[in-house]
Design a protein that fits this description.
Blueprint (H helix, E strand, L loop, with lengths): L1 E7 L5 H16 L5 E6 L7 H10 L4 E6 L6 H17 L4 E4 L7 H15 L4 E6 L5 H18 L3 E6 L7 H9 L6 E5 L6 H15 L4 E3 L7 H12 L7
Parallel strand pairs: 1-2, 1-3, 3-4, 5-6, 5-7, 7-8
Helix pairs in contact: 4-5
Length: about 240
């Protein structure tokens, strides 16, 4: 019997964990498969091992793993596959099929651009805030994301900063883009859910607002219906990756 195991990142933020759980439950309600379980890579329960074992306890012999990750960095390339490989060794009779992360795709760029337009009204410059990674593929992905949003929003200045593991940092990115002119700056946290990282972005944006700077931001990407639709497409797709 087939099952779906959703894997989100996890967070220490109660608000972020609640958002992720509510999101996954909405997805589950739209998919006609009896065995569906959620799990988290870290910081939020249930973890992957527990979610996996719940699927088996409910009779699963094929587990379709659906990672709720925007891009393919270390967690997708190493951490999740390692955990699944260990589980495969413990449960050799269970077939594990892992789906792709979201990747850079038109639907997400369209959704991100709509979130920005609906929140800002008018802007001159856009700062995309990424989680951050030392993986070079992530930097190539964000180059595409920046170009795609620049085209969709019709603005000349779009740049990217990172919350960890890469430069420029959030503080550097904000200071740099604010120095580029006097018009309205808009900040797009390229994150699926709220959490400690999005709270950090909000703090830095509010600090500059209090200093009189013209700056606004949007919420996480999962606020747009298109993200939920994409997860359902991923869960229903027959395409897999080998771990």
């Amino acid at each position: 019997m087939e099952a779906i195991l959703y894997i989100a990142h996890g967070t220490r933020s109660k608000k972020g964990a609640s958002e992720a759980i509510d999101f996954i439950e909405r997805v589950m309600n739209r998919i006609d498969i009896p065995i569906q379980e959620m799990s988290f890579l870290e910081l939020t329960k249930p973890l992957i091992n527990e979610g996996f074992k719940r699927c088996i306890a409910r009779g699963a012999t094929v587990i379709n793993v659906v990672p709720l990750f925007l891009l393919a960095a270390g967690h997708i390339k190493h951490d999740i596959p390692q955990t699944l490989s260990s589980l495969q060794a413990d449960f050799p009779h269970v077939e594990i099929l892992m789906k792709d992360p979201f990747g850079v795709q038109e639907k997400i760029l369209d959704a991100a651009a709509e979130l920005v337009r609906n929140s800002s009204g008018q802007m001159d410059r856009l700062l995309i805030v990424a989680r951050g990674s030392s993986d070079p593929d992530i930097h190539a992905d964000f180059s595409q994301i920046a170009s795609g949003l620049k085209e969709r929003l019709g603005i000349d200045f779009v740049t990217v900063c990172f919350l960890a593991a890469a430069e420029p940092s959030l503080q550097q990115g904000l200071d740099n883009i604010l120095e580029e002119g006097t018009g309205i700056v808009f900040v797009l946290p390229y994150l699926l859910f709220s959490g400690l990282l999005s709270a950090e972005v909000e703090r830095e944006v509010n600090r500059r607002k209090k200093a009189g700077r013209l700056i606004q931001q949007t919420g996480p990407l999962s606020q747009h219906q298109a993200i939920e639709d994409i997860v359902i497409e991923r869960a229903s797709s027959k395409k897999i990756v080998i771990f």
